[in-house]
């Protein structure tokens, strides 16, 4: 390793903000020395609390980051703020705005603020942002806030490096729906309704909570996203937000970083069908959930089991950016996979192995990002060797259900 990498790494690890600033410039320009620097500092990372702040332009993200930083400072913590702006790295517009709004913070030596212009960065925006956060972490900053304008896949990817993601939405602009559509609701651990001093904030919070209730039933995650109303300009509601952040950090096992999490398949045993009474809803759900956990495609697509029974299965999937096709709609294959999963689970609910030998699908309506889909499989007929199933796929929202797709399938029972 070259001497300048070694020397800069040493200074960053000692907490020099000048060295940190230089290291971030290296990352922005990319290349081998940036890579060497990150590799050298990697062992010093893992201590910072990393919180992502995303939301529509002008929703109040920077004001919120500033308010969070002030409270954290008052509690004696050091703070890093990274504003990632993928769209206008050279215009300086939003970046300059952030600097001005945060200028009082910039005078505090316990706060490090950096806007990142990363267009063309080697390895993409999210990689550069992750490296930048690692450097801030290695420099000993206790709380690192990462701000992105949450509109595209890039920004969603950046948010994956945070332990906790706050999605900021503005009351009264139908923003809640926008957030849902952009898929950002999917990554929200905490939803902050900003500008709580404005009318409609409480109403927006209520609507978001309702939306989350729908999503909750489909979510296998132990953490239930919270909705908090904040008045960041006046510093109101920040304690409640911090409380939500702490609760979330506790729920994710030692606050470990998501991108470091290693998925180790340790499957729960599958309860034997013969031991489950016909009316035992929990028992059937447990059996189908254990089967789905062994199914790579269910795991990859985020398909979860809602309910089951002998010959029945109900599964759900919330459409995320990864499910979209090149036209921006939900990929037909993803809907097929959802229906097929319900089919597979229902036909295998009984115990003996059933393999699909025929399937037909028709589509009634298109779906997009943020839509929650439920597939219900019912047994039309089952003999010793052949089973026939009907699967209805519907989109669920606050107003009820709308048909999306119909699927029929036949299995051959092998076991
Ligand atoms: N009334 C009111 N206005 C607020 C509040 N918080 C932020 N604002 C205003 O909303 C506008 C946008 O705030 P920012 O914090 O810059 O929003 P942002 O999401 O960081 O904006 P971009 O980075 O440009 O996407 C500013 O004019 C703020 O003064 C609040 O609590 N109440
Ligand atoms: Mg901003």
CATH architecture of the largest domain: 3-Layer(aba) Sandwich
The CA-CA distance between the termini, in Å, is 60 Å
Largest sheet: 7 strands, parallel
Range of helix content: 25-40%
Number of continuous helical runs: 14
Structure write-up:
The protein is α/β, with parallel strands linked by helices. The chain has 2 domains: about 45-250, Rossmann fold, CATH 3.40.50; about 275-415, Thiol Ester Dehydrase, Chain A (Roll). The chain is about 40% helix and about 25% strand. The strands form 2 sheets. It has a 7-stranded parallel beta sheet, sandwiched between helices. It has a 6-stranded antiparallel beta sheet with strand order 8-9-11-12-13-10. A hairpin with a 2-residue loop joins strand 8 (about 305-310) and strand 9 (about 310-320). It is elongated. About 45% of the residues are buried. Mean pLDDT is about 85; it is low at about 90-95 and about 255-265. Guanosine-5'-triphosphate (GTP) binds near residues 55, 62, 94, 97 and 101.
Quick structural gist:
The protein folds into 2 domains: 45-251, P-loop containing nucleotide triphosphate hydrolases (Rossmann fold, 3-Layer(aba) Sandwich), CATH 3.40.50.300; 273-413, Hotdog Thioesterase (Thiol Ester Dehydrase, Chain A), CATH 3.10.129.10. It has helices spanning 3-13, 17-29, 32-41, 61-74, 93-101, 103-106, 124-138, 153-159, 175-181, 201-216, 238-251, 281-293, 296-301, 332-348, and strands at 49-55, 79-84, 111-116, 143-149, 164-169, 190-193, 226-229, 304-309, 312-318, 354-363, 372-382, 386-397, 400-413.
């Amino acid at each position: 390793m070259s001497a300048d990498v070694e020397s800069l790494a040493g200074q960053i690890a000692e907490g020099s903000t000048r060295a940190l600033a230089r290291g971030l410039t290296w990352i922005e320009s990319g290349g081998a020395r940036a890579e060497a620097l990150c590799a050298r500092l990697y062992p010093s990372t893992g201590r910072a609390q990393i919180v992502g702040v995303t939301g529509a332009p002008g929703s109040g993200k920077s004001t919120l980051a500033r308010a969070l930083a002030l409270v954290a400072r008052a509690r004696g913590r050091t703070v890093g703020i990274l504003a990632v702006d993928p769209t206008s790295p050279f215009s300086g517009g939003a970046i300059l705005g952030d600097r001005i709004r945060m200028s009082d913070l910039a005078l505090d030596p316990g706060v490090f603020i950096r806007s990142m212009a990363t267009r063309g960065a080697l390895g993409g925006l999210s990689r550069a942002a992750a490296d930048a956060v690692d450097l801030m972490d290695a420099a000993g900053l206790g709380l690192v806030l990462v701000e992105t304008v949450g509109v595209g896949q890039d920004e969603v990817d950046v948010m994956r490096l945070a332990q906790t993601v706050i999605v900021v939405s503005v009351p009264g602009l139908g923003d809640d729906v926008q957030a849902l559509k952009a898929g950002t609701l999917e990554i929200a651990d905490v939803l902050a309704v900003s500008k709580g001093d404005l009318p409609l904030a409480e109403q927006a919070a209520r609507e978001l909570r309702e939306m989350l209730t729908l999503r909750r039933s489909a979510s296998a995650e132990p953490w239930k996203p919270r909705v908090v109303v904040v008045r960041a300009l006046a510093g109101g509601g920040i304690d409640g937000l911090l409380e939500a952040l702490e609760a979330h950090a506790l729920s994710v096992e030692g606050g470990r970083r998501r991108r470091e999490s290693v998925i180790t398949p340790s499957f729960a045993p599958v309860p034997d069908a013969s031991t489950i009474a016909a009316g035992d809803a929990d028992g059937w759900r447990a059996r189908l959930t254990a089967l789905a956990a062994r199914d790579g495609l269910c795991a990859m697509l985020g398909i979860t089991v809602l309910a089951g029974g002998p010959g029945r299965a109900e599964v759900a999937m919330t459409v995320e950016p990864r499910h979209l096709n090149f036209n921006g709609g939900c990929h037909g294959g993803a809907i097929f996979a959802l229906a097929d999963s319900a089919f597979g689970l229902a036909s295998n609910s009984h115990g003996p192995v059933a393999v699909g030998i025929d399937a037909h699908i028709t589509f009634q309506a298109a779906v997009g990002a943020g839509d929650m889909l439920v597939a219900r499989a019912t047994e039309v007929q089952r003999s010793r060797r052949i089973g026939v199933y009907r699967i209805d796929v519907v989109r669920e929202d606050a107003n009820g259900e709308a048909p999306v797709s119909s699927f029929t399938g036949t299995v051959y029972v092998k076991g």
